[in-house]
Design brief:
2 helices, single chain, 213 residues, elongated
Length: 213
């Protein structure tokens, strides 16, 4: 009886404490434990990957960014003639914007430009000053070396006639850090304008520069 108790006791201890079982004595038990361990570990790994997305998680879209720029019109071509900065006028604008990045390539940009303009005296026409706002949302595509896009635009302000515009843009960014870059942009706003009985057009190339995030 004593010999039988000594022989049974180690097996009982192994079952109770979860100690490793001798594979030569109990091959069936080893196979069961190994299979359970693999399934149990895989179950936990699957839950962890589901919670964190794993290392292969795709970026979340859309994302929201923005920019702040300083805008300077260079020259203006209209149906009434051509005028240039410093010779005929001084015009500076501030352009904040909110950018919704749809994916790695496409974005929708909601931009507003507040312009202040000083027109110099010319051929007896007195000097004048005015302010206006251009609302110009549009789409932007990232080509890699640069970005390009097209905006729609309306200029709003006292004394501003009926107008509608299209603004092709070319933008080049220079990274400052991971989330911030300095950019330079060429805008080519083309406007159709009019008052009752008289219509016109304007093309005013301008440079915009600032920071985007």
């Amino acid at each position: 009886m004593a010999a039988l108790l000594v022989a049974v006791a180690p097996r009982g201890a192994n079952a109770d404490t979860g100690a490793e079982t001798d594979p030569e004595e109990h091959p069936g038990v080893q196979l069961l434990d190994s299979h359970h361990g693999r399934n149990h570990g895989h179950h936990h790994e699957s839950k962890a990957e589901a919670g964190t997305g794993g290392s292969g998680e795709a970026p979340s879209w859309p994302r929201v960014g923005g920019h702040w720029g300083l805008v300077v019109p260079l020259v203006s071509f209209t149906d009434e003639g051509t005028t240039g900065i410093f010779a005929d006028f001084l015009n500076v604008g501030i352009a904040p914007g909110v950018t919704v990045k749809l994916n790695e390539k496409w974005s929708i940009d909601f931009e507003f430009i507040g312009f202040t303009r000083w027109t110099f005296e010319n051929d007896g026409t007195p000097a004048s000053a005015s302010t206006s706002i251009v609302v110009d949302p549009g789409v932007v595509y990232d080509f890699g070396p640069f970005s390009g896009g097209l905006r729609t635009a309306v200029e709003v302000g006292s004394g501003i006639p009926f107008n509608l515009g299209l603004v092709p843009i070319i933008n080049k960014g220079f990274p400052i850090n991971e989330g911030l870059k300095w950019f330079v942009e060429l805008d080519l706003p083309f406007f159709v304008t009019g008052v009752p009985g008289n219509g016109g057009f304007s093309l005013t190339p301008l440079i915009q520069t600032g920071v985007a995030f």
